[in-house]
Give the backbone structure.
Amino acid sequence: MRVKKSAELDALLAASAARAKGKKKPASKQPLQPVPAPVPAPPPPQRILGLDTALRKTGWGLIDSNGQHFTAVDCGVISSLPKASLSDCLRRLNGAIKELITRYHPDIAIIEGGFYCKNVRTAIILGTARGAVLGVLSEAELPTYEYAPRKVKQVVCGFGNASKQQVALLVSQFLNIQVVNLPDDATDALALALCHAQLAGIAQGLNLENPL
């Protein structure tokens, strides 16, 4: 039987002969489609605890941050009576910080550092309160960073001489909360947490100082 020649038949015969000789079918010259780059997953949110440490009035503030968006969680003040003894104030401060950690499970703690006191006794008292707080944070194995007040104002407000009222105003804008009835110690603590969150969001925190 005679088979009528056709272009399709010739191509099949040529391909069969090439396979018999161990030759591969030439690849089609189709343009390669670019592979889209994988979209990086957003960083997991971190809960940051800011602490404006003092003996009788320690402000605290908690925020959640993913590096770009900040959400207020809670804030308040740990207070002791004016006539309470040093040991009673430290005991109350110690217990309150432990309760905050147990209730809110923060990932990072931020405290105020670089304070300056002309009065030696005041400096000793502040240092004692700071040591009590650091002891609790260390026991909880919380990474702890410190920022001087001027640094916090520069990051949050844009200039280091901002007043407490200006700090509170910027805190309310960043976190979209009302701060009219909040004590300054609480808004200062929220500003500490915001300072770290903003710095950590810049270049994935590559320029952060080492934790204490």
